């Protein structure tokens, strides 16, 4: 099983160049956050971010009594 909290050393190919990808675990949930700078108008840059959350694979179908 991967560590509970870790940052990826290399973003996946779909992420923009220079993106920061963080994977965290919160109980049964895994959260992936991607942050990146994008060029904006007149030399200004925009900071963009998005995240996805899913149940950890090993928790799906587990019945707790």
Describe the structure.
The chain is 0% helix and 49% strand. 0% of the residues are buried. A hairpin with a 2-residue loop joins β2 and β3 (29-39). With 65 residues, the protein is an all-beta fold. The chain has no helices and 4 strands. It has a 4-stranded antiparallel β-sheet, with no helix packed on it.
Would you spell out the secondary-structure blueprint of this structure?
Elements: E1 5-7, E2 20-26, E3 29-39, E4 45-55
Antiparallel strand pairs: 1-2, 2-3, 3-4
Report the helical percentage.
under 10%
What's the total helix number?
0
How many beta-strand runs? 4
Residue stretches low in confidence (pLDDT < 50, at least 5 long) are none
Q: Output the radius of gyration.
A: 16 Å
Task: Give the overall shape, derived from the CA principal axes.
Answer: rod-shaped
Enumerate the strands of the largest sheet in spatial order, edge to edge or round the barrel. 1-2-3-4
One letter per element, helices H and strands E, the order comes to EEEE
Structural class: mainly beta
User: Strand count, sense and closure of the main sheet?
Assistant: 4 strands, antiparallel
Integer average pLDDT: 80
């Amino acid at each position: 099983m991967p560590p509970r909290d870790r940052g990826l050393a290399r973003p996946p190919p779909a992420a923009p160049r220079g993106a920061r990808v963080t994977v965290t675990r919160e109980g049964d949930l895994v959260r992936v956050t991607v942050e990146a700078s994008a060029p904006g108008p007149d030399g200004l840059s925009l900071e963009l971010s998005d995240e996805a959350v899913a149940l950890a694979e090993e928790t799906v179908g587990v019945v707790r009594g």
